Amino acid sequence: MRVPSTQALRALEAFARHGTVWQAAAELNITRSAVSHQLRFLEQDLGFALLQRAGKGVSLTAQGKRYAADVRTALALLADAAVQYGDRGLLQGAITISSTPGFATFWLCTHIAEFRQLHPGVTLRIVTPSRLEDVDAPGVDAFIAYGDGDWPRHSVELLSVVDFMPVCSPALLNQLGGLSEPVDVFRTVLLHLDGLGDWFTWLSAAGVVAPRTDQGVIFSDMNLVLAAALAGQGIAIGDNFVCRQAVETGRLVVPFDLTIRASRAYYFVTPRDRPGNPAIEAFADWLKSRLVQTAPVMRL
């Protein structure tokens, strides 16, 4: 038996992961017909059936599934070897990271040059999702997601818990003559992120009975919330990642000592059915190490 072609093995791995010919073709940037031909040629080379009819489509046989799993492992080993023995011994590759807008703007973008200095051979693409908890966007290798950590089909690592607190500009605080009691926040505009829950939770924890949080301005993006707060348009609920730099430089102030632990947190999430990627592993190691050095030390 001759050794199967790499193209055929990649077609099998992509088909096994996606379950459809058209998705495998889209990932490999070839036609559906080309994927089907590669799978048929692979069956001929191997001498056993990889595919079986399933309704109007096809699926892997039991033996095909086992072989595809071995192929995935083998391709990952080849990728590791290419990195290990590549030009100048540098880590090579291109990866796409999805990050929540606030984390990307106020943390990732202020530290990303450090990763590039460590791994200049890695091309990094940063995208932002439409939903903070989105971990299924196509074409994304890993996600910095904000949620409850319940993503069963993914590998999930906790990056950091999140603490919330009110923040506003120094100019607004002076204009108001200070804020003595939590209920004083109603003397200005409440700035919300996608709903009223964060303000309600903080005000309730501060002892405000039946707080009315159905006023103010609601934004769909944390960047917009912070932009409005920095411009003195109201008072926002910020967190220890998004607001850290602005607080440390004096562009935002924290008028109250009370912080609350969020029920959700930041996680590093990767699909379990993807082959191992040394560049993703290097990014995850750098991210976790850098967060340990920066995020926990914020004192407001």
UniProtKB/TrEMBL annotation:
InterPro entries: LysR-type_TF_proteobact-type, LysR_HTH_N, LysR_subst-bd, WH-like_DNA-bd_sf, WH_DNA-bd_sf. It comes from the Bacteria. GO terms for molecular function: DNA-binding transcription factor activity; sequence-specific DNA binding. The keyword Nucleotide-binding does not apply. Pfam families: HTH_1, LysR_substrate. Keywords: DNA-binding, Transcription, Transcription regulation. Residues 4-61 form the HTH lysR-type domain. GO terms for biological process: DNA-templated transcription. Belongs to the LysR transcriptional regulatory family. This is LysR substrate-binding domain-containing protein. It comes from Ancylobacter polymorphus.
